[in-house]
């Protein structure tokens, strides 16, 4: 009887099967013990990673709209120009007030310098007995202190005028509406000539970041026991049949929705080619584990005849048929139940030609 050479797989373990005068190499593998992994289909939702309604911070008329639906924009890019002439008037008034305050400071400093000079001369003259009256020196000192106080007050007024001008310029800058982040305009809600009011939550544009998406998966309570951040998950969308996408588990809320009894887990998805869009309903191949530890061998290790389903183990160097029952399949391996132990050696390419008790040397 002749047994053909079999390729070694999984583990480089070999025995020699003796037939008469010769021996043939037989590939052996170890029985693996692990839990069965599988996937269940879950319907999820794609959402933009960032999204916002762009609103006006100040009231005004829409002068220019520089983007439209579908426009790709970058952070800081000018989107809309508003017009509010009264703001220009307020800014000019603030500039005039600041200039007046600065002139008042200069005048007060000049007066303070004169009062200080007079006080210093009288203080020097007072060193000569009888040169000046004591009351005159005290009056000069008080005038100097009063002049210094006026300088401080005028400087405070100038500082307030400067702050008011900065505030006016900032408010005027709000007439130029810019993008808060990179994204794409998905809605345009205003046109030139329209009046917008600040604080009314009137959206001008809708901006969404679509190069980076959130995949929101409602994971049933049954499957939340093995959630792992950083795990990669595969999903598919009807718009691109046959194409697989992947996302990474990024945010686990650790709380179930009380109505659906599901946990809304979020995955990060890269969308550099723009083939995905927010609002799509992908089908996710969600990985789950059976929880039971099973024994796995290659499918080729299991022999099925009219009388037996068995594997061939090496017991004390001889072939031993062990009856088994097949279970779930995982790739090229099949789970088996029987008198097997994890780590035990079995023939990889089994056949009923290897009879019970045949020496394996």
Pairing-aware structural class of the strands and helices? alpha+beta
Instruction: Output the CATH topology of the largest domain.
Output: Elongation Factor Tu (Ef-tu), domain 3
- Share in helix: 10-25%
- Strand percentage lies at 35-45%
Measured between the Cα atoms of the first and last residue, the distance is: 17 Å
Q: In sequence order, what are the helices and strands, one letter per element?
A: EEEEEEEHHEEEEEEEEEEEEE
Q: Count all strands and give the number.
A: 20
Largest sheet: 13 strands, antiparallel
Describe the SSE topology.
Blueprint: E1 13-19, E2 22-30, E3 32-43, E4 45-55, E5 60-65, E6 72-73, E7 78-83, H1 85-125, H2 134-173, E8 176-178, E9 183-188, E10 195-196, E11 203-220, E12 232-236, E13 245-251, E14 262-270, E15 283-298, E16 303-304, E17 309-315, E18 318-330, E19 333-338, E20 345-347
Describe the structure.
The protein is an alpha+beta fold and 361 residues long. The chain has four domains: 13-38 and 292-347, conserved putative lor/sdh protein from methanococcus maripaludis s2 fold (Beta Barrel), CATH 2.40.420; 40-49 and 209-289, Efflux pump adaptor protein, beta barrel domain (Elongation Factor Tu (Ef-tu), domain 3, Beta Barrel); 52-82 and 175-206, RNA polymerase II/Efflux pump adaptor protein, barrel-sandwich hybrid domain (OB fold (Dihydrolipoamide Acetyltransferase, E2P), Beta Barrel), CATH 2.40.50.100; 85-173. 22% of the residues lie in helices and 42% in strands. It has helices at 85-125, 134-173, and strands spanning 13-19, 22-30, 32-43, 45-55, 60-65, 72-73, 78-83, 176-178, 183-188, 195-196, 203-220, 232-236, 245-251, 262-270, 283-298, 303-304, 309-315, 318-330, 333-338, 345-347. The strands form three sheets. Strands 3, 4, 6, 9, 11, 12, 13, 14, 15, 16, 17, 18 and 19 form a 13-stranded antiparallel beta sheet that branches. It has a four-stranded antiparallel beta sheet with strand order 8-7-5-10, with no helix packed on it. A hairpin with a 4-residue loop joins β16 and β17 (309-315). α1 runs antiparallel to α2 (134-173). The longest helix has 41 residues, at 85-125. It is elongated, with a radius of gyration of 42 Å. Residues 1-12 and 18-23 have low confidence and may be disordered.
